[in-house]
Design brief:
This protein is of the alpha/beta class and about 375 residues long. Helices cover about 40% and strands about 10% of the residues. The chain has one domain (about 5-60, about 90-375): TIM Barrel (Alpha-Beta Barrel), CATH 3.20.20. The protein has 12 helices and 10 strands. About 50% of the residues are buried.
Length: about 375
């Protein structure tokens, strides 16, 4: 079986070749998809969008930016939620537009460069023949939500960002063979907005919010060939160290995935949701309402919050709701070198020097636990 594991995006290595050579020969047989690891400004996920796209845009004003670090005032990635870029729409602008469709956001450029490496190494046998190249992008509200605090301004920027994302994905889907490609939509900020409604005691509002943030799905997917696989990645964030938050149960994530699968306008091939420490039925009970069609489900349980009970105890509970599933980390590993949280160790303080060995060993152990669970 080639669907036991999923990498949801960033890997703390310097080049796509290093990522593919690290995972391909060792545990590549367990993956249906492999990403390039999201190097450079993508290692900080959406902070790269703030820096290279929104900052300096002629229709936007930058009124806050990350504080200087040890390298001086030119830093662009934040130290936490308190330290983000912030933008407002310039008075008189009714809708913000983004130029150079298909290239402005940088995702198509990076995908094409990385796919050449992927294809070359696949031909050499480094990457198993069945594996698709996975491209990860933030959906509209993830691309903007942390950086635009005024909701009216957000509504002026969102349509243009959705069109820009559609153009990037159309470009990728036309230049990479569709039977070699998987697109993953990252939904961390969408998740946060839905959870805020639940925390406020407004479940009906949470579902309405889920439908609002999922609305761009049909447009961004509309130009993709049917052969391309499309997936959804729900996340609790790593900007403050993982986990940046721990919801009381998984209900918000279920609303998120249901709404985005319903709005996709096409087949959803895989979905991912994160777990935290809880292994009890109360936390996972909302999974009874998960409705994502025939999508392969990946449980983001490869982390170090499990304690003495270990991964198996949590998966025993999951299996009461999902008879078949794969495993993943709860989020990407891009911030591990400086903010590991509890992704790699139970202590969760300084990053261990052998973090790539821990990542590989944790994924192999997850396969062993999963296989034991299904016997």
């Amino acid at each position: 079986m080639n669907e036991e594991l999923l990498l949801v995006g960033s890997v703390p290595l310097e080049t796509p070749e290093q990522v593919f050579r690290t995972f391909g020969p060792s545990i590549g047989d367990h993956f249906a998809y492999l990403p390039d690891g999201e190097q450079g400004d993508r290692a900080h996920w959406i902070d790269g969008i703030a820096y290279r796209v929104l900052n300096g845009h002629p229709q936007l004003e930058t009124f806050s930016r990350p504080a200087p670090d040890e390298h001086g005032p030119d830093t662009w990635h934040p130290q936490g939620d308190h330290d983000q870029f912030k933008f407002r729409v310039i008075p008189g602008v009714q809708e913000v537009q983004f130029g150079e469709p298909g290239w402005r956001l940088g995702y198509a450029r990076d995908a094409l460069n990385s796919y050449f490496v992927f294809k070359t190494l696949k031909n050499e046998g480094v990457i198993p023949a069945h594996v698709r190249f996975q491209v990860c992008l933030p959906l509209t509200y993830s691309a903007l939500g942390l950086f635009v605090p005024d909701e009216e301004d957000l509504l002026k920027i969102a349509p243009g960002m959705t069109r820009a994302l559609r153009a990037e994905v159309d470009n990728i889907g036309s230049l990479i063979p569709p039977d070699e490609l998987a697109i993953q939509w990252d939904l961390a900020i969408e998740n946060r907005r839905i959870e805020a409604k639940l925390v406020a005691g407004d479940p009906d509002g949470a579902w309405e919010e889920a439908k609002v943030v999922a609305a761009p799905m049909e447009e961004v997917n509309a130009g993709l060939p049917d052969e391309v696989h499309v997936g959804l990645h729900s996340c609790y964030g790593t900007v403050n160290g993982w986990p940046s938050r721990q919801p009381g149960d998984i209900r918000g994530t279920v609303l998120l995935l249901n709404a985005h699968a319903a709005a996709a306008g096409r087949r959803t091939d895989f979905v991912h949701f994160p777990t935290v420490k809880a292994a009890d039925d109360a936390w996972f009970n909302p999974l009874a309402d998960l409705n994502v069609g025939d999508a392969r489900i990946y449980v983001g349980a490869i982390h170090h919050l499990h304690g003495e009970a270990g991964l198996r105890a949590q998966l025993d509970t999951v299996k009461t709701y999902l008879p078949d599933f794969g495993l993943a980390a709860p989020c990407g590993f891009g911030r591990v070198p400086f903010k590991p949280g509890r992704l790699l160790t139970e202590e969760g303080d300084a990053p261990p020097p052998d973090f790539m060995r821990i990542i590989l060993d944790d994924h192999q152990n997850a396969v062993d636990v999963l296989n034991d669970l299904t016997q």
